[in-house]
Predict the 3D structure of the following.
Amino acid sequence: MAGEIDNGREELAIMVEGRVKWFDPSRGYGFIETSDGQGDVLLHASRLRMSGRVTAPEGAKVKCLAIKGDKGRQAVEIMSLEGGVEAAPRPRRFYPRREPDAGVSAAVVKWFDADRGYGFLDVDGVEGDVFLHAATLRKAGIDEVHPGETMQAKCAAGPKGLLAAEVYPTQYV
């Protein structure tokens, strides 16, 4: 089956069948693996949106009209898309919860690796280390910290133990 597609010029589109090889919504494209021996077909997010979809599950059966471009074939109209395995949802970002009455405690930087973006604090009244993320420092307007430096911290339960939910330079508390 063939059809005319107008993309500024007339081109002959052919019906192609295959399976979604991969599709990355953040990149906005993926590829359809065909069995006709003529190579993969580019699947652009804009063509998915035109068919009422936002993603294409890996392994899904696809029927589409495709044209031959300078860099190979690309889908211009999705006729059907069925099955496949949906990608696992991205994990939700963790926002620590602290009790409304959580107090501020004195803390000392045990170590901090700026390249990795995290380190640990020794916090008064807390047994064990307290995780400190670079984003928490940035939120407090602190550019860098060094071992032995003092600050104030509000701790919260995180996914792997206690973490510093808020920090303050010692002179501001």
